[in-house]
């Protein structure tokens, strides 16, 4: 039986003149003993943005701030008009504006089966359980994944669990997708499929962190984070080449030091 409930709730319309608007204003973030960001100011308005940088540079921390999982100790984060430190209503709206795909799928997944996990994205937005489960099954079937509906998530591979995480985000249709190293566990064909899926999601803003530079090389904007600061910010090919060259130099210096 097809989904026959009311139309899904849509995110509050965003000013068409400023379709995407993520602002960090003088943000300081401390995690544990670590001062990850110290007065970071940043605007993210483009439809496709890549995030690159070494392990520990602050990519996942930036995503946690934007999605409201962490609050800055100083400064503020405003996502499409919602302050992430706002009221409960603001926070509910924030969850419609932005969806985060975690670096580790096991940090994101809550439910035992694929259909339940997808349905949760809809019940969290006010859909009834029955309608949400029907829509989840339909959504999977539309993508040729009908057989996945009842599958136990614990029995899926790491890459398949990552795909479930992305599907669970996509079914909720947030204005902005934050994808934290989404290519990391995917085989080559799945990487190509994901890249195509991202290209086709033209009505969404997508921010992708990755160590696989080819996936953001053609993006209109890439940020290179280094120790919580923006080391470079510009067209994908320029920033990726600058970062790759920097890595080559550091690797050569280490090899040289090893021989000395
Ligand atoms: N749960 C935590 N508690 C304390 N400090 C943390 C925690 N998670 C990350 N950090 C610190 O925050 C800094 C930024 O980490 P973050 O995870 O944002 O880096 P990243 O760029 O995503 O790295 P990676 O490429 O390894 O995923 C690091 O110095 C790290 O030690
Ligand atoms: Mg990370």
Q: What is the CATH-assigned architecture of one domain?
A: 3-Layer(aba) Sandwich
Could you tell me the number of beta strands? Answer: 10
Query: Major sheet, described briefly?
Result: 6 strands, mixed
Which parts are unreliable, with pLDDT below 50 for 5 consecutive residues or more?
1-5, 8-17
Supply the CATH class of one domain.
Alpha Beta
CATH topology of one domain: Rossmann fold
- Helix-strand makeup class: alpha/beta
Terminal CA distance: 71 Å
For the largest sheet, list the strands in their spatial order. 6-7-8-3-9-10
* Shape summary: globular
Overall average pLDDT: 89
Portion of residues in helices?
25-40%
Radius of gyration, whole Å: 19 Å
Order of helices and strands: EEEHEEHEHHHHEHEEEH
Small molecules bound? adenosine-5'-triphosphate, magnesium ion
DSSP strand content: 15-25%
Number of helices: 8
CATH 4th-level superfamily of one domain: P-loop containing nucleotide triphosphate hydrolases
Describe the protein.
The structure is a single chain. With 260 residues, the protein is α/β, with parallel strands linked by helices. The protein has a domain of 172 residues: P-loop containing nucleotide triphosphate hydrolases (Rossmann fold), CATH 3.40.50.300. It has 8 helices and 10 strands. The strands form 2 sheets. It has a 6-stranded mixed beta sheet, sandwiched between helices. The chain has a 4-stranded antiparallel beta sheet with strand order 2-1-4-5, covered by helices on one side. A hairpin with a 2-residue loop joins strand 9 and strand 10. Helix 4 crosses helix 5 and helix 4 packs parallel to helix 6. Adenosine-5'-triphosphate (ATP) binds next to strand 2 and helix 1.
């Amino acid at each position: 039986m097809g989904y026959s409930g009311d139309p899904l709730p849509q995110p509050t319309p965003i000013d068409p003149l400023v379709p995407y608007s993520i602002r960090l204003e003088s943000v300081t973030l401390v995690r544990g003993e670590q001062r990850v960001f110290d007065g970071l100011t940043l605007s993210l308005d483009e439809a496709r943005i890549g995030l690159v940088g070494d392990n520990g540079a602050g990519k996942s921390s930036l995503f946690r701030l934007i999605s409201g999982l962490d609050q800055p100790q100083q400064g503020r984060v405003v996502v499409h008009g919602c302050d992430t430190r706002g009221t409960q209503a603001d926070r509910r709206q924030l969850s419609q504006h932005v969806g985060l795909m975690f670096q580790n799928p096991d940090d994101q997944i809550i439910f035992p089966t694929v259909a339940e996990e997808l349905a949760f994205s809809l019940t969290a937005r006010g859909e009834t359980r029955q309608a949400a489960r029907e829509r989840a099954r339909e959504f999977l079937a539309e993508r040729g994944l009908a057989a996945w509906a009842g599958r136990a998530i614990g029995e899926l591979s790491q890459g398949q669990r990552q795909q479930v995480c992305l599907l669970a985000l996509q079914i909720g249709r947030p204005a902005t997708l934050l994808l934290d190293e989404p290519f990391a566990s995917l085989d080559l064909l799945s990487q190509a499929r994901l890249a195509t899926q991202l290209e086709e999601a033209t009505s969404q803003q997508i921010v992708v962190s990755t160590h696989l530079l080819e996936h953001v090389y053609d993006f209109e904007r890439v940020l290179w984070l280094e120790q919580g600061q923006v080391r470079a910010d510009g067209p994908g090919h320029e920033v990726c080449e600058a970062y790759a060259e920097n890595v080559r130099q550091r690797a050569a210096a280490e090899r040289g030091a090893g021989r000395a």
